[in-house]
UniProtKB/TrEMBL annotation:
<feature type="domain" description="Aminoglycoside phosphotransferase">
    <location>
        <begin position="36"/>
        <end position="255"/>
    </location>
</feature>
<dbReference type="GO" id="GO:0016740">
    <property type="term" value="F:transferase activity"/>
</dbReference>
<protein>
    <submittedName>
        <fullName>Aminoglycoside phosphotransferase family protein</fullName>
    </submittedName>
</protein>
<dbReference type="InterPro" id="IPR011009">
    <property type="entry name" value="Kinase-like_dom_sf"/>
</dbReference>
<keyword id="KW-0808">Transferase</keyword>
<dbReference type="Pfam" id="PF01636">
    <property type="entry name" value="APH"/>
</dbReference>
<dbReference type="InterPro" id="IPR051678">
    <property type="entry name" value="AGP_Transferase"/>
</dbReference>
<dbReference type="InterPro" id="IPR002575">
    <property type="entry name" value="Aminoglycoside_PTrfase"/>
</dbReference>
Amino acid sequence: MTKMHADEVEISLSLVSRLVSAQFPQWTDLPLSPVASGGTDNALYRLGADMVVRLPRISSAVGQSEMEMRWLPVLAPHLPLTIPRPLALGSPSFGYPFTWSVYRWLDGSADVLTPDAASSLASFLLALQGIDTTDAMPARGRGGPLAPRDPHVRAALVALSGTIDVDAAAAAWESALAAPAWDGPPLWLHGDLHGANLLTSHGRLSAVIDFGCLCVGDPACDLMVAWTFLDSAGRDAFRAALPFDDAAWERGRGWALSMALIALPYYRFTNPVLAGIAARTIEQVLYPTARTR
C-alpha cells in the first residue's frame, strides 16, 4: 500500500485479515483483497463478493465511520442515488489504533462522465439539501467560509509555479474569496464531490460514495462538482437545474479550485487518480470550455 501521508499508519492484507477474523469470525473464510481507489483518508479491502472493509490511514479520518454509521441510514431513503450502507464497526486491535468499518460493496466505475450526470447530480443535491438537519454536524471546514483555506492555496500556488498559470489561478481564487457569504440556513452537504466519489453503472450515474466530510453548512461547497467532474455542457445544465445565485456559484468554483490546487502538489507522486482529477479541475476552472476527457 503506497503511503500518501507522513503520519500514515501501517495497514496490510495480513493485518486486515486478522482484524476481520478476530472481530467478525462469521466472515473469516471470505476472500480478502486490497482495492485501488483515489481515496486519501481510508484504505479499502474487498471482503467476499458484497462487502468492503474501510480503515482510516490517518488520525484525522477517525470518527468518519461512526458518523457514517449514524447518518447514512437516515439520509439514504431520501436520496435518488445509492449511497454506502454501513454494516459493522470494528475496534482497534493488533497494533492498529483506529475504529474501522465494514460496508456493503457497491459495483460501478469511478470518474466516468455519463450523459445523465448533470441532471442526476442536481436531483441528488436537491434531495440532500431538503433533508431535515436536526442534530446534524455543523460545518467542519467544508461548508464553512473559504477564507481559512487561503494560506494553503497561496502555498500551493508557489509549489505549482511553472506547472499551471498561477496568475490566472490566483485571480480566480481572489474572485471566489470576494463573493458574498451564504446567509441562508445550513444545509446538508457531501463535502467531497469529485469523480473518484461518483460511481456509474450501465451508462448512468448510480452511486455517491465516501461521506467522510458530511456536515451541514454552505451548500456552495457541493457545487464544486460542476468543475471537479462535469464538462462545460454538463456544468450549464447542472447550473440551470439548481436554484443558487451567482455568489454561490462563485464560492463553489472557489471550493473546486482550492481543493485542486492543494491536492495537485501534495498527491502528484502518490495518488495519480486524485492528482489527475485535480489537474483536470484546474483546467476546467481556468479554461471552462476545455475538453479534458
